[in-house]
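Review session, final week

We close the course with one last complete record, chosen because it touches almost every idea we covered. It is histidine kinase, a protein from Novosphingobium nitrogenifigens DSM 19370 with 431 residues. Go through it on your own first, then we will talk.
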Amino acid sequence: MMLHTLFRRNLALMVGVVLAGQALAGLLVTTLVIRPQVIRIAEVTADMLSAVDDAMMGMAPARRAALVAQINAGGRMELRPQSHPPSDGLRAPTMIERQYLIALASRLRHDEILIWRTDGPGRLWFLLQLGGDPYWISISAPRERGAVASLVVASIIAFIVSVAGGLGLQYTIDRPLRRLAAELDDYHADGTAAPLAIEGPAEIAAVAQALNRMTGRLAEAEAERAVMLAGVSHDLRTPLTRLRLCLEMLAGQDPDLEATASRQVDRIEDMLGQFLSFARGFADEPCQPTDVVALARAAIADAGADTGLDSVSLDAPETLVHPLRAQATRRAIANLVGNALRHGKAPVGVRITHDGSALRVSVHDAGQGFDPAAAQTMLRPFARGDSARSGDGTGLGLAITQRAALAQGGRVEFHRDPGEFSAVLILPDQA
């Protein structure tokens, strides 16, 4: 599995570090703690067996049997004659037992091979000569868990605790990062978005502060651009009015030239209206219950069309009231209808539905439209489409529609189906 996320990378690094630390700790404990203790125990055992060997040397059989019984009664060591071997448990010695046998054999005062076996309960026995006779000897009583098993259990517990603590630490880092990403997704350059929350570790808080400064600069730049568009549009209206007055004074001299000039004046005036709408925005308009069907009819009229089979069809319920910003929604629908009329292909229609959670206004035509994957590009200010939907205009129509949708918590979607292209304005109920 590819480690694409910070969480997976940190978790893999954490597990690797913990495992390496546990392996190193086990090696150090085995080398510096367990092995010296095993050697020390083997030395004590060798000294004790040497003392028993010296005591039993030349001792009468009856006294030797009494000494063996006394040693067995103590519980620290058990002796059995070679004729009564322990039951074979068929268990190989553990690592510590092997080290113990090697250390014991190196310290005993003979060169015999140390023979060993394990019994059913798991005790380790070895065969030695004591007082001239062979005996099976077991030094320590069997234990439920050896040192290696204890070390493994301790390592597992430490690993679980370390991973749990690491996951908790990662959660404290991951949670503010996810919240920061969600707040950035909700950011709008119109300055209406709330500042990012400054929380979490110092590094993440520093990133949030830097992003707040950056978004502040973006909002200032957007505000300056809006002021510039509004100022330019306002200043151009005076010479445009004078130009229209001049055309009226020249009425009747050249009808064709007069008609052409009048169309150009209307076009310029429409462009200035687009600039002003984009610059002003819709965030200040109150949201109130509105007759959506009547609003759609007015928007279609604003786009220069009538409702009917010959122009733009309207498929909507008889009455539908929905809380929204009326002027923003009317301008958005008018822009979508205008685009369909200018760049699409008849028939053009408007379909209004409500699915229980959002109002959906779909403007469709029979044209090819543009690739819905390029929607984000087309929604930018001054963006131009491909040859399928290009033409004269400011490039602000879809940007104004997008801004009207965002001002109400909604969005704009585009769908290309066989024989139909549709632009859908979606306004949720909580707008």
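Two points worth writing down before the exam:
Residues 413 and 424 are 5 Å apart (CA to CA).
The first helix runs from residue 6 to 56.
Good luck, everyone.
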